[in-house]
Amino acid sequence: EDKALYFAEAHEILIQLKEMENDGLVIIEKNGIKVTNAGKPFVRNICMAFDLRLKRKAPETKLFSMTI
After folding, report:
1. What CA–CA distances, in Å, run from 37 to 25, 43, 54, 55, 57?
2. Which run of H or E residues covers position 54?
3. Is the pLDDT confidence value at 31 over 70?
4. Is there a contact between 10 and 33 (Cβ–Cβ < 8 Å)?
5. What percent of the chain has pLDDT over 90?
6. pLDDT at position 47, please?
7. Going by C-beta distance under 8 Å and a sequence separation of 6 or more, which residues neighbour residue 53?
8. Rounded Cα gap, residues 21 and 34, in angstroms
9. CA-to-CA distance for 27 and 42, rounded, in angstroms?
């Protein structure tokens, strides 16, 4: 395993992805995740789990339009 791929927020991301997996939106695999057909309308929300800018500093203004 490449330690350079780890960062402080990785555990939090995995928790969010696990919740999405429980909802049937993604499938967590050993080397990645897959978005399911049910998850396709929520791909923007899924990607937000990886947005470190959002995680490290709560935005003072809206960064983009609201999601579903």
Report:
1. 8, 10, 26, 27, 31
2. helix 52-56
3. yes
4. no
5. 44
6. 92
7. 63
8. 10
9. 14
